[in-house]
Here is the input.
Amino acid sequence: MKKLISIAVLAALGAVSQAQASVTVNINPDAGGADPVLSIGALDWTVGNALSVADAGQSVAAGGASAGQFFTTYAMAKLATLNDGLGNPVLLPSAYEWTFVAGFREQFTTVTGPGGAGTSAFNILGGAANATSNFFEIWYDAAKNGNALTGKGFQDGVRILSGHFVSGSGAFTADAGVTGGANIETLDQFGVNDYAGKTSLTGNGSSTGDIVVDSFDPTFFLSAPAGLTINFTSQQKLAFKQTNPSGCFWTGVAYMGGAGNVAEGCADTIGAINGLSGPNLILQADASNNFDGRVPEPGSLALLGLGFAAFGALRRKVAA
Here is the structure.
């Protein structure tokens, strides 16, 4: 079986694929430093950020989005804890940080609801046509500099795992206000309001997707069973109440603007009312994932023809 990561990128509200026996992976969280090798069943990320980016000349905001329309989503967060096979936290990194950054193409399948309220459904897209904006990476950094407010410091240090999306689906539901349109609140409700004057529609959503692992660093991931999958779940919410909205987002090649941060060189791309002004939409995303034994269907893997490789001289081939 080829190595696959199954990811619910934005919320734990959707159904997960067929359950299989749980597995654990031996992880050396600081690659031979002070922390011990651990048998890990889950990675629990802190509350992070996601940004859905409209294609040129379009908008993903309510009233601007339509079925069939394409867009790209970027996300990032820091690791909160490494959990054992029973889901119990066994290590909170203190002298270093793990982070992830991700990017993937999506397409609206349905867009419903008047005045911004309602549900939009979408698919996550794989394939060569979407390769330029398709990545999932985990990074180790001795400098704890991941900053939710700026959106920077999440893809520096040492990259210890990388992969790419192959499929997925999801939905987001915007809350209705008392007059029937979208419910509107202050965007940044976490601590000090860093975006005075910015508001947002409210709501939540979910998505699930599959990621094929392209490479990993064997000094961090000491065991990686053939056919391993990772169910990655998170909550996607508006407004921001557990972290700051990010001014910048990593696209895989450069930074672009989210909520905007002039000092960091990132423009505002969401407008005065997040989710209505457009063209882009910023979201609070709280992620966690567990390793299990689910494997991809042989037919889909044959069509994809995707490989698996480790860093440097290490290269593992896994039978389809």
